[in-house]
Amino acid sequence: MAFGDLKTENGVKALNEFLADRSYIEGYEPSQADVTTFQALGKAPASSFPHALRWYNHIKSFGSETSKFPGAKSAAAAPASKPADDDDDDVDLFGSDDEEDEAAEKIKAERIKAYSEKKSKKPTLIPKSSIVLDVKPWDDETDMEAMEKAVKTITCDGLIWGQCKFVPLAYGIKKLQIGCVIEDDKVSVDWLTEEIQNFEDLVQSVDIAAFNKI
Questions:
Q1: Which residues form the Elongation factor 1 beta central acidic region eukaryote domain (predicted)?
Q2: What is the pTM of this model?
Q3: Would you say residue 158 lies in a domain?
Q4: Which domain holds residue 209?
Q5: pLDDT digits (tens, 9 = 90+) for 105-149
Q6: Fewer CB within 10 A of the end CB, N or C, for the chain?
Q7: Quick one: 139 and 110 in the same domain?
């Protein structure tokens, strides 16, 4: 298996690096190679592997539809490019033979068309969510402006911070209420709250005040 044991950190790291500039395990559409890798992984990768986590959440969103992905199931969780003279493959997509290349491209186009037709019949998935977070300080001596600046230093693809305000709690203590919009397949709410809580000197806790799909 090209990624090694996906139950280990090294295996997940290899998968994360592979997906840094790819959307799927093979080609430009989800296939049984994605299903096999997803099953071998077993659970969502840690937030320290953002590319693998993005891919995992995307494949998970298909639910039972994954059984209809093109391709044949295999024991390998990652693609392995075969040499042009490897007799194990029924169709050599990477060979130099012009006729085989044309046949492979025709098959690929038919699969993409069939998958697009199936997907167009499904309800459109809402890819974004609007969230309001309540960030609570330790006491009334906490520098709330410093807290706001610290929270807004958290940036990543798929995260946009919105308006914020300080809301009174009790005994002179205020909380930071801040809104944001996230792309669901790129940003995990759990990851975002953990990142905010990492500012331990300023933040006591983080609560989700509102969560709405866009």
A1: 93-119
A2: 0.42
A3: yes
A4: 128-213
A5: 888 888 898 887 776 666 667 889 999 999 999 999 899 999 999
A6: C
A7: no
